[in-house]
Amino acid sequence: MKNFKLLCLIGLLLLAQACSSPSGQTASTENPAPDQSSFLDYSGLESELSGGARMIRISTPKGEFDVWTKRVGNNPTMKVLLLHGGPGGTHEAFECFDSYLPKAGIEYYYYDQLGSHYSDQPNDTSLWNIPRFVEEVEQVRKALKLDKSNFYLLGHSWGGILATEYALKYQDNLKGLIISNMVSSIPSYNKYADEVLGPQMPAEVLTEIKAIEVKNDFTNPRYMELLMPHFYTKHALRMPLEQWPEPVMRMFNHMNQTVYVQMQGPSEFGIRGNASLLHWDRSKDLPQINVPTLTIGGEHDTMDPKHMEWMASQFPHGRYLYCPNGSHMSFYDDQKTYFAGLVDFIKDVDRGEEM
């Protein structure tokens, strides 16, 4: 059981978010508070019976499968589809969005990607690749009837990679894009881990971690014993482990390790070995994304916050949200900053304000 819990924690590095704009903006007060009775009224909707939850049938090269989604709220012009991290994580890490988006009147959708938690979990490893996941998101979009007039796509960590790839192929369907706590280059991410994050650890701790990784001894309990106090609680979620929010712990217990290891690799200190994401790099392609785009980065993130700020400058209509107290899951450890900036961005785009 102890080893199982340790393995369930593997995946935090690329999971699941962030921040304040450089100008120190707070949530807009121009829009009045939504009418909560109409916001939560599902009368006459297809998902009324299930409270907004539904399975969506998707087609893949290996057959048809079902993926789980859940709608929260009603807003004809602001609808956010949430792409969780991992790969192989779950929607659960996003549950804190319940505390902020409803009162802002923003409709949003929880979604477990194929292979994750409430969705089907096929054993065919050929399914775990970026192009297939992009087509999955497009099929989900169509089923939910999201379009250019209302569709915001928010991807956190691995979900940020997926959101970037979706936008590069299907940006004509988007109203706005949010890339939360994810850089545009895995080689750059690995360099940051080696040159910035690693040296912040005590030298003897880093040496022991590297020795374990060289031996591929990732199930060794000592690996997590070293990473939890010296890495996770400093760069993944800046709270003592015993204070980590219940949805976060639940998400890790439901992590699909097969998907995670195939795409991200077994190391918690960068993406290494033969992981399929090892060479992913879209840094030169960002100017092709013309929709309003928000990047979010935390000062203590596993990802380089300067790189995420630079990304915003590459989009023709980009904005950066900086979380001074945030790490990789800034929507928990710099929560108010994160959501104030996120809500501002969504409402600014809805009003047609230029980035």
What's the CATH topology name?
Rossmann fold
Could you give the count of β-strands? 8
Low-confidence stretches: 1-30
Question: If you average the pLDDT, what whole number results?
Answer: 90
Tally the structural domains: 1
Radius of gyration: 19 Å
How are strands sequenced across the largest beta sheet? Answer: 1-2-4-3-5-6-7-8
Keywords: Hydrolase, Signal
GO molecular function: peptidase activity
GO cellular component, one term: membrane
InterPro entries: AB_hydrolase_1, AB_hydrolase_fold, AB_hydrolase_sf, Peptidase_S33, Pro_imino_pep
Task: Outline the structure in words.
The chain has 355 residues and is an alpha/beta fold. Helices cover 35% and strands 15% of the residues. It has helices at residues 2-9, 36-39, 130-144, 158-170, 186-197, 203-214, 221-236, 246-253, 257-264, 305-314, 330-333, 335-350; strands at residues 53-60, 63-72, 79-83, 107-112, 151-156, 176-180, 293-298, 318-323. Helix 3 packs across helix 4 and helix 6 crosses helix 7.
Question: What is this entry, summarized?
Answer:
The chain is an alpha/beta fold and 355 residues long.
Any key phrases for this structure?
Rossmann fold, globular, alpha/beta, AB_hydrolase_fold, 355 residues, 8 strands
Topology diagram in text:
Elements: H1 2-9, H2 36-39, E1 53-60, E2 63-72, E3 79-83, E4 107-112, H3 130-144, E5 151-156, H4 158-170, E6 176-180, H5 186-197, H6 203-214, H7 221-236, H8 246-253, H9 257-264, E7 293-298, H10 305-314, E8 318-323, H11 330-333, H12 335-350
Parallel strand pairs: 3-4, 3-5, 5-6, 6-7, 7-8
Antiparallel strand pairs: 1-2, 2-4
Helix pairs in contact: 3-4, 6-7
InterPro entries: AB_hydrolase_1, AB_hydrolase_fold, AB_hydrolase_sf, Peptidase_S33, Pro_imino_pep
GO molecular function, one term: peptidase activity
Organism: Pontibacter mangrovi
